[in-house]
Queue: 4 jobs
Job 1
Amino acid sequence: MSHKWADFFLQGCAPHMVPLSNQTVRDPKDFKRFQCDDAWELGRRLRDDMPGLHSIMVLKLKVNGVATLVAKTFFGKEYFESINQIDPFLDESRAYEHILLNCPSSRLSYFPTYHGVILDLTREKYPRSYALRPRAIVLERVEPSICCPRNTPASRLSSIRRFCSKNRRSASL
């Protein structure tokens, strides 16, 4: 029996779900906003193999000094209009909003947790060594590591955390 991947994955979703391509384009001001009451700052980029003036850059987002989130930052929409390109910030943030609203909770674990958008990054919040990208999508930081909680069954999580923290301490000695 042959099924489309999307049909199989989204089975059991609310019947009111409308395909993303059929929805009207919402204003980013209506998207979920990143809210954090604790001190946060943007840090280094995750990958150093990308050109410095690439239109999208993923930076570590530290909350209280710990980088558990990432901010995927984008140039303003004017930049993409000037090169006749679709705005990837708008497309990607719409997709995460769509997942948030329509995906059953049992399937949300297949996606990084979406924490919202930042529409007004200023030079004070953005690392000075990079060209300012004023918009960002804030996501859970997922790493291809045994120490990443997403990659570990809950039953083994505490023993993995002890192993990872012990190895980090010994590596820093």
Note: DSSP finds four helices and five strands in the chain.
Job 2
Amino acid sequence: MSGKMPNKVFIEEHLKHCLENLSTKESYIPGVIVGQVIGENYYVVHLSAINIQNEHTNKSHALVYNCPSDLMIDSNRIFQKSLEVVNLLPGGSHVLGLFFIVPQDLKSVQPININFHEFNNLLVESPLCDKNKSWNYLQLNYSTVNKKSFCYTVDFNSVTTPITTTYKSISEIFGSFDNDWVTLVGKFNFDALDRFNVSGGPKALISIRQILLNKLESILNGSVCTFNGNVYDENQTLKDFECNRMGDLLTNVINVEFYRKLDPGNECKKASLKVERGKGKILMSGLCSLAVPFNRNGTIKSAIKAIHEDAMRTFTIRLNMHLQLLAEEEDIEEEDDDTHIVHETPRRILILKTEGSRFVFSDYVFPGEAPQSSLSVAGEILNLPEQNMKLCDELERGRHSYYETLPDMDSNLTQDTIAVTTNNHIMLYLSLMAVLIAILGYSIVYM
């Protein structure tokens, strides 16, 4: 895997304290590097030690090893834990690599030769990862002896046998980059896809999941994206963009909107996905929020790519949450055939890291689930103490107003209902009824 080599690694100053606080005299400690690649450079916003839970005390602590060989033998556990971090990332942000706390003088420390090829293979299997990335992973080593760090890029050639790995040094800069970050915020509708008629219940929907995702991606690629209401040249950076404030937590916000090219004769055409098998029905509709942290040094082109990634991620996660739940319930036998089970749309919440650039991570909860519990779980995965996190659940709090505009599908359906299923008799109605539209619901028609 070879890509164009970035020039420098910019790491937020508070992360140096994170490395110092993790340090022990005798142990090797692995962790995950989170950030973005913008142009020629890496921008690191978070370092997450890999936490495990003590079976006896029920408390978590950082994963530690006595020597590098133990660490490499247990590498699969490190890689699997990295996937948990991936699930919390917004579009445009990635697991950039791995860091290691080493109890040696850094001058004598060589890169830890962990299997980055296997690490990459595991990550790209996730539907949330960029399979076409052009950058190389990072390895950041920090010495507990002389309190110094050293950074490498990792390039591996998967064509040769055995696979060869090359480590090259790259300059890292710790500093304050708080004003270099913005959050791109917007919304889009589920109502984006063409009509499908499928028989077979929820499991049939699982079989066409990738078709739905591909169609959404196609629509995104054919849409126009505006920033604060304007269209910009794709090579322009976001350095001089004016920002807004959203609530008490989100600062440096740039509003984004999607517009789709339409056939003037089909503006009102409605589309839906419908699976019939009885008298029940499932309705999946409403607004999805977009929340993309982005470095101001990036271009409009890169920002749009990050926004598209975020739209695909949020759609993928919500769809998977429903399909998993519905498939499980289809296998459950109920004594009462008329029992109705109601599912509501999973809601996106943001987990704001209050240090440094105030980076936002992302998670999802069903109505009735306490967002605070999601905050606790994310804190364990990201190795973030509670005092350094804030919960932001405002972006999708008012989604019920959208449902009020939908046609009355069934008198038994309540507002905000995502799914109603009846035992052994299921009609799935995934409502994707309009076009990918902007926050205010407008569309631009190109003649």
Note: The first strand starts at residue 8 and ends at 12.
Job 3
Amino acid sequence: MDNHSNDKKYIILPHSAYTKSLNAFKQGMDDIEKPKPKNRATYVAGIGVAVLLGLLALTFIPAIDDQDHPAEQKETEREEVKEEHIINLNEIKENDDLLSQVLVRGPLDLGSGGGSETIHSGEFSVIALSDWQLISYGSEFEHGSKAVIEGPAGLHQTILLFDEEATQDEMDQAKTELLSNYRYTEATRVPVEELKNYKEKNNVTDSSLMERFKDRFAIELDEETKFYTMTNEQEGRLYDYVEATMFDKKLILFSDVPNTHQGLLSASYFTLSSITPEESYEVSIGPYDQKHGRPITRTMLMGGFQWEYLELDLYEHELGFTSYIREGATLEKIERTGFTEWKFSDEGTKENRYYSFGKLDPEISLEDAKLTLIDGYGLDRKFIDGTSQISFHHYEPSINTTRSFELVQKQGEWYYIFSEDDHSEGFIGPGMFELASKFQQEIIFD
């Protein structure tokens, strides 16, 4: 008779059976480790008992038919390992399930705050939190730059900025080199419209400082914008890749954060919101005025952290010079004792949010004119270091207003700029003093 019949079922031992057997064997071995009896026969018998217990445990394990336990049940006893993929952006499509998990993120934990760090040869700045470190590599490329931010829990961001002169090959090479260091297990393309909707409804940080700008990214959200989010379950990481136009530059951002650290998941959104130009930034100019040889209109980026796109119009002043004022600004001429004031304001701003340009009466001494300005605008003399002070800035917390003035000399005569900026509704757009300074800097006499 054949002892190896094909009808015989193999015994599959569940994990619990192996555990019982192993425990019985270990218990027998533990007994052996105890002080050995003097009688050698007793000692040998102990070993036999331990082995026998292990065999008995296996002997009385009931046979389990593999067909009685489908694959779905056995799958729970081992964790599926997802395959890692090389990053090829062209292969990543929209994944609705993943998108629903990664798009909306909690606000970034600002901790103890941070400060601005310059990038792209000082042309822009980005906010780095106090426990973050920024390393700027300056001209890493022929027509671009690289900056790296490193933070807690392995946070790592790479910011690449390219000037208009950069070729597509130069940018593609930098992108390929950057992405070659990473692998993902799951990925999705993030539609631009989803980003727009997200920014309108969600705060980037846990601070009210950026609440006004929750719907703002430094990048353009248009048809050329590319945004991908990837996860690597084996490494426990979340990656964001962003490629977009930022002002007149091309930006590539790659962000690598731990996917279990809720306070860091919005790091990409925060960085995209906190990149600002260091100074007023001319975006474009309109046609030239034949009479004065200057652009009729200029599009500027102004305001620093509160940056805003502004349209400036060429303005011809009655004193015989041209400059630029904000589109739609209203003008009021005021004759005062010792000086003449031209007050500029916007129709939509409050009464105490404006700037002025004025000319001092040459018949009055400079010191007297300063005191006239100080008293005429209601400035507190105790905050001014004598009448020799040419510029003055003072914030009055009781009314949440900043007042500033500065004396400037042009063609041998004294002029001044003054601004009053109401902050009761927050820091909105470029400050009035910045607009006033821009006005006086652009003055060109005929």
Note: Residues 1-67 have pLDDT under 50 and may be disordered.
Job 4
Amino acid sequence: MAFVVVSPGAVLTPMGMDKSGDLAVGKDTANLKVSGWAARSGYPDTVISAVDEILIGSSGAGIARCKATLTVAWSPGAGGGGFHISLMQNSTEIKGADFASGATFVALTDTPITVQPGDRLWLAVTNTTTSIWGVTATLKGGSGTYVTFDAV
């Protein structure tokens, strides 16, 4: 009888990143990739690419979450418009939301996803205020603006 040793597959690693420093997002800005990240506390095996994305190393199911916090409450001004955050997997928005007027944060919770090696998770923002009424929204750096992935 032959003896066969089977090695375990790669383990799906939880990862998370916090925004490092504030980021001003001016009027008429569409799908801006949020830049400047650091590994989030409690996620020591996080891999953040040079282009500001969490890099997934193996296959499986997990839960993605993110939160975006502003330095001041969102106010679109007299011209209207909005501020939208997008949790992205590769080039696809997997969840998104608009800031309500007066809100200081938006949280995108418990988004079930399936990942493959090389998949990328990242955050994009859109500011649709325009013209002379346009306003700048500033994402606040630190643990209040983050992206996480946890295996299930």
Note: The chain has a mean pLDDT of 93.
